[in-house]
Amino acid sequence: MEVRKVFRAGNSLVISLPQEMLRELELTEGSRVAVSVDRQRGEIVLRPFTGADGSGIAGDFAKQVEEFINEYAGVLRELKK
Asked: What sequence ranges are listed for the domain SpoVT-AbrB (predicted)?
């Protein structure tokens, strides 16, 4: 177990993760993670996001859709009118 401190970054509170843990889980900058709370155990659960969230949408496809929306946000707003 490693103890980490919660700190402020802009308007958010952040907890940094040790490089060793990130390497072990193959997480890099920009990786997506699923965060949940186990209230019974009083724990925050952090897992690499694989797209297996029950929505039926694969993680890679969801990422492609997100990138498309970000790239073409202006055009999509115009089409909405």
From this structure: 7-54
